[in-house]
Amino acid sequence: MILALLAALGVGWWMWKKGELRRFDTNDLAIAGFAIVGLILTMKGNEISGPTMLIIAAIWFARTYAPGGSKRSHPMGRSEALRILELGPDPDAAAIRDAHRRLVSRVHPDRGGSAELAAQVNRARDVLLSRAN
What we know:
The chain is mostly helical. 72% of the residues lie in helices and 0% in strands. The longest helix is centred in the first third of the chain and has 18 residues, at 26-43.
């Protein structure tokens, strides 16, 4: 049981460092649940089902978080784009562009941000502008 706790803490720490922890969704919970059940079965001595579930959870996790995986390529909705750009419910094109300019200047890789965050801000702008026009 201590091994399971250490594994869970290690995964949680890694996800927090990568910035993925705040984007936890039901798919992440399903992967974690599958891995935990597999780990428990393995620890109880089940030599087939436990490791099989762990392998499936690892593959599922890798496919979800790999570059181009479903976690990175899910379609962004309007509400998510509004939240990212910190805008109200019905912004005009000028407000969208101003919010984008303000946020990109903070998250751009040249200013200590990350390319992934800048891409997310750009995608939010594109989603809102495509629906504003």
